[in-house]
Amino acid sequence: MTPAAPGDGWGFETAAIHAGQPPDPATGAVVPPISLATTFAQEAVGRHRGYEYARSANPTRTALETCLATLEGAGFGLAFASGLAAEDAVLRSIPDGGHVLLAPDVYGGTWRLLSQVHRERLRVSTCVLDDPRTLAAAWTDDTRLVWLETPSNPLLSIIDIATVAGLCHERGALCVVDNTFATPYLQQPLALGADVVVHSTTKYLGGHSDVVGGFLAVDDGALADRLRFLQNAVGAVPGPFDCYLVLRGLKTLGVRMERHCANAAAVVEMLCGHPAVSSVLWPGLRDHPGYAVAAKQMRGFGGVVSFVCAGGEAAALAVAERTRLFTLAESLGAVESLIEHPARMTHASAAGSPLAVDPALVRLSVGIETEEDLVEDLRAALDSVERAGAG
Ligand SMILES: *Cc1c(COP(=O)(O)O)cnc(C)c1O
Question: Looking at the whole model, is its pTM more than 0.70?
Answer without folding.
Answer: yes
